[in-house]
Amino acid sequence: MILQEYLAALPMGDLKSIAYTLGVQPGMISRARLIREITDQTFQPGFIDQIVDDLTEEAREVLLAVLSAGASGRVYDTRKPENSGLTEQLHGLLARGLVIGRRPAYRTVDFVVPEDIRDMLIRNFTDRLAGVFSTEAAGSKDDESRDLTAVRNVFALVNGLRHNPARLTDRGLPYKRAFDAMVERQETATNGMPDSAEDITEQMRFVMEYAQWRGLTREEDGRLRAGFDFESWMELPTSEKLADLLCFWHARERARSPAVTALPGILQLCVGLAQVDLDQIMRCALNCSSPDVRTDSISEQERAEILAALRELEWIGLLRKYDGKNGSVGGLVITPAGRHVFGGQDWPDEQAWSAQFIVQPTFEIIAPRDLNLTIREKLELFADLEKVDLTLTYSVTRNTIYRAANSDMSGEQVIGFLEEHSDKDVPQNVAYSIQSWGDAYGQVYFMDAFLLRTASAEIASHIKAHGELAPYIKGEVAPDALIVERKRYRELMDLLQKQGYMPKSGIVGSTGAASVSNSGQRVRSVEGNGPRAGQRDRIGPPVTGEQRTPPSSEQKPVLGFGDCLPGFQLHGGSGGADLNAPHIEQAANMQYLSPGQTEELLEIAVKNNHRAVIEYYLGNRSRSFLHRIKPIRIERTRGTPFVESHRMPEGDVHAFKIANIRAIRIVYENEEGDD
Description:
26 helices; 5 domains; elongated; 4-stranded antiparallel beta sheet
């Protein structure tokens, strides 16, 4: 939501408060003009920077925390008395139009930065934090080969399941042999050094969970197979694959600490920096996760959680982690892909992939790890992946060429593909063998023979010589047994009947294979249990739009200051322009207020031992009655607030639902005689 849309949804009193804070003199102008004046003032060159400079350090930290939360927003519980300082800072940010209050769910308020102000604030905080975040760390000779590891591993997992589905145990887990085969296809080397067994397992779990979440794998007949969405996933540009992986990462990390969920927003501030200090990133993430965090040291648990999250972002290909110099913690570099995802910078993703490999006379193919996935998909039709290291090693055999031929890829097509993408000439012995194996394919084949039997060879010869019937005859196994196409036998039956041959309507000797009912309708058993084309229902939980796309701000209603910060006036405002709470002033008549304002008055009554007169709706809101009460306390544990009160003059305790209080008036001490 942009600032102008947010202002249009605010009450007039809040608009005047923002105008007063920003130095706009509202006077008696209209609402539309007031919104235009505030917007024009906000987007004057350098005005946002001036506002941020004028904020206190505490307010800037809260603003950074909200900014790092991105479009999902930062949730703060402003109802707790101990958060009065945070409430004060949030009110100041609301009054300056830097943040928006929204309600994604009942009694939950989150705060987010307007979309058109976000980029200006990111630039401001990037410049402000550059001196703290920037660092120099030891680089690596194998930097770029680490990028996009997760994308390649997802392909390796699912494409491997295409050719060799993995057997599953009763608990739905792959058997050890099947799991080891899947692991062997994964990239398990970083900077030339093998990863630990624990790290390999974590990478495998991350890839498998994403593939299941995205619908790239499915369970069928006790095996884990490639899913029906794999082809559409392959067609996505690399940038969209990365965004999809990051969306899954967000959904997966919600269960972790708030510091982890703040990481992408903080990394967005580092897009323009060459290298950033890992320790400062951790501290900033912790400070953004809670307004009360002021730590000089990071606990081991917090460090482990943040490092695990950064490692996953490194697998995706959005950053690289380096060891520090002289025993320092280390640093991070945002990759070109990460700058595109986090900061929207241009990134020609097709340049991130290689298109060439080398064919060896030993029938091995040496390919780079960043081989284009479309090329790699076709390569794996006729070659087996033997080894994954700093390069990929494939082998071509008679069996792999046979597999390719079964997928309608001839030997000539295999050779043509190798010549197109081989960095050197294809060795003659390799080309000759592939051509020979390809030519041998199909010289022996099975045929689905559907026989037309005749009582004599003479009848069969007449049928073969008939002008209309002859095209249906594909061969013969005996003088009185002719081969016809199974799918066209009904047409042939009708023609035979027209020509006076009077064929039998049933099929002789078709027990268990195919049969024809009395009405002539053919019934066949379907081979296999897999879904047919056009009936590919995904197995497992469906992937909904909510899982991959964060909820849009338009789905969350905008709240005014009073609803964003309930009870803020009870703790004192932030200036003369904010002391406009007429419902808190002494009133001679009943006040018709919102539930939030009614709750504020009842809190005052509880605190000061006042009595109140309320007009209370019945359950169906068809009638209302007046009650004189003495509030005892506000009860909020039932999901909706109630006020527990003594009813006067009866004295019994009764719970009134605050949302059903139509009107209220506080009875102050000087009115006791009138009560």
